[in-house]
Amino acid sequence: MDKAQQPEDENRLIAERRAKLASLREQGLMGHVQDRKISFAKRADGQRITGLFAGIYYQHDEDYLNPQTNGSWSGIWMLHEVTGGSFDEMPVSINYLRERYA
């Protein structure tokens, strides 16, 4: 992939996730995007819904990415109190995990 295309493609995906969250009123979780993004909304019945781009989980740089995207957040998400598709999200960085469990 051309380095110049990466942010545009990612922005398109983010816009699609927000549009899907708004129009379909459904939860969504997507991994392996070059940064973490999150959107919140409520359905007509009051249920909280979340659209989550989970980011990446690796410690190396990729040749096809530019310095800004190679410096993206890397980690995992813990999803707590998962009920009927709703959850409380907690990001945990790869740096924290390395320090804590090294």
How many helices?
3
Major sheet description? 3 strands, mixed
Radius of gyration: 15 Å
Q: List the secondary-structure elements in sequence, H or E.
A: HEEEHEEH
| Low-confidence parts | 1-5
Q: Mean pLDDT, rounded to whole units?
A: 78
Strand order of the largest sheet: 1-3-2
- What global shape is seen? flat
Helix amount: 25-40%
Give the N-terminus to C-terminus distance in angstroms: 34 Å
How many separate domains make up the residues? 1
How much of the residues is beta strand, in percent?
25-35%
How would you describe this structure to a colleague?
The chain has one domain. The chain has a three-stranded mixed beta sheet, with helices on one face. Strands 4-5 form a two-stranded antiparallel ribbon. It is α+β, with helices and mostly antiparallel strands. It has helices spanning 5-24, 67-70, 94-101; strands spanning 28-30, 36-42, 48-54, 75-83, 86-93. A hairpin with a 5-residue loop joins strand 2 and strand 3 (48-54). The longest helix has 20 residues, at 5-24. 31% of the residues lie in helices and 33% in strands.
Q: Which key terms come to mind for this protein?
A:
102 residues; flat; disordered N terminus; two-stranded antiparallel sheet; 3-stranded mixed beta sheet; alpha+beta; single chain
How are the elements arranged and paired?
Elements: H1 5-24, E1 28-30, E2 36-42, E3 48-54, H2 67-70, E4 75-83, E5 86-93, H3 94-101
Parallel strand pairs: 1-3
Antiparallel strand pairs: 2-3, 4-5
Q: What is the compact description of this entry?
A:
This protein is of the alpha+beta class. The chain has one domain. Helices cover 31% and strands 33% of the residues.
